[in-house]
Design a protein that fits this description.
By secondary structure, the chain is of the alpha/beta class. Helix content is about 35%, strand content about 20%. It is built from eight helices and ten strands.
Length: about 210
């Protein structure tokens, strides 16, 4: 029997959304420490939210092209257990951190399959490519590429997932995990609680 797909709810900015996500069964919640993001949260606020979370929920800090020393300090201050990198970070950069790391790769075409093999990380997140945008596009990409990638390790599927398409995405790709932010929001940084509930219903329906 295959393991149940894991769910990460990203772009958390407040305790109410974080607690609902975990009550519904989120395996992980994500906090964005990239200042240009509309879902940016400072590490002190993230730390206050993380302290209130139940045990056994993973916490992930999202970064883009951050100097390694600053990244490690921010992750420590917030208390996240894992970092997710959405910039141009090299395999060597990822290794140097000494932290559990997810590397996000933006999918433009099948060439991403060669790129992902060069990273020795905890997982690879596949997101939609859009010129000049490091993530959070709210757009899907060719899931056939993600399906092929899923045979190469722990693939986290992101990019344009919603309550309406997540079931199809899981059935096509069979990812290790799925990652959603804008697809369950009212506005950037604020989750729509009805959409969140529907999203979990769709993922957990067999």
């Amino acid at each position: 029997m295959k393991n149940q797909v894991r769910i990460k709810i990203c772009g958390i900015t407040n305790l109410e959304d974080a607690l609902l996500a975990t009550e519904l069964g989120a395996d992980a919640v994500g906090f964005i420490f990239y200042e240009k993001s509309p879902r940016f949260i400072n590490p002190r606020t993230a730390a206050l939210i993380i302290r209130e979370l139940p045990p056994f929920v993973a916490t992930v800090g999202v970064f883009v092209n951050e100097p390694p020393e600053k990244l490690v300090d921010t992750a420590k201050e917030a208390g996240v257990g894992c970092v997710q990198l959405h910039g141009d970070e090299t395999p060597e950069y990822c290794q140097s951190l000494g932290l559990r790391t997810i590397k996000a790769l933006r999918v433009k075409d099948a060439s991403v399959l060669n790129k992902l093999r060069s990273y020795t990380v905890s997982g690879i997140l596949l997101d939609t490519y859009r010129e000049g945008v490091p993530g959070g596009t709210g757009e899907t990409f060719d899931w056939e590429i993600a399906s092929e990638a899923a045979g190469a390790g722990r693939i986290i599927l992101s990019g344009g997932l919603t309550p309406e398409n997540v079931r199809e995405a899981i059935e096509k790709v069979h990812p290790y995990a799925i990652d959603v932010s804008s697809g369950v929001e009212k506005k950037p940084g604020r989750k729509d609680h009805d959409k969140l509930r529907k999203f979990f219903e769709q993922v957990r329906t067999r």
